[in-house]
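Sequence, please.
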């Protein structure tokens, strides 16, 4: 588990009933090759300068395999004063709450949590989601199978946004 500064929250929650999806998120959001010092030195020698793009952030990942379990993790994190900044939530998670129900409950205890709906299906249209959850600036959608770069970028940018909004 990564040690994070108190004012720099990069806690990511993955809520999905498929264990393989959790493994995929782990591979995508763990330290990338670009953070490997030996590789960075090699790139510097080959290309003459260090890359200008920001390196991948260090994320602290947590997993839940059902909606209620995810809700309990969010509630506990809020109560302990160490909240999640981003949640990636699957839509289909039988037999319990689906992703939309899960998000509705989570936002009761963590209104500013940046939330990404992950789905391969069209169970809900965007209009239905907005009607159910309300129009929110912290709600996003990504289709499975997802592009690793898109997931990494979303996790980084949304945690940055979450942190910026919480600064005094």
């Amino acid at each position: 588990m990564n040690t994070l500064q108190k004012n720099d929250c990069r806690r990511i929650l993955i809520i999905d009933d498929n264990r393989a999806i959790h493994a995929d998120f782990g591979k995508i959001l763990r330290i990338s090759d670009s953070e490997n010092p030996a590789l960075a030195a090699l790139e510097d020698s080959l290309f003459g300068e260090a890359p200008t793009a920001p390196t991948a952030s260090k994320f602290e990942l947590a997993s839940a395999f059902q909606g209620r379990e995810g809700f309990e993790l969010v509630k506990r994190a809020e109560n302990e004063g160490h909240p999640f900044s981003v949640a990636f939530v699957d839509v289909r998670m039988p037999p319990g709450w689906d992703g939309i129900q899960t998000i509705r409950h989570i936002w009761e205890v963590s209104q500013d949590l940046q939330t990404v709906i992950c789905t391969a299906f069209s169970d809900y249209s965007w209009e239905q989601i907005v009607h159910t959850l309300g129009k929110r600036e912290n709600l996003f959608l990504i289709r499975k199978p997802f592009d690793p770069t898109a997931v990494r970028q979303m996790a980084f940018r949304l945690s940055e946004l979450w942190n910026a909004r919480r600064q005094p």
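The domain at 11-166 is CATH 3.40.50.2300 (Rossmann fold).
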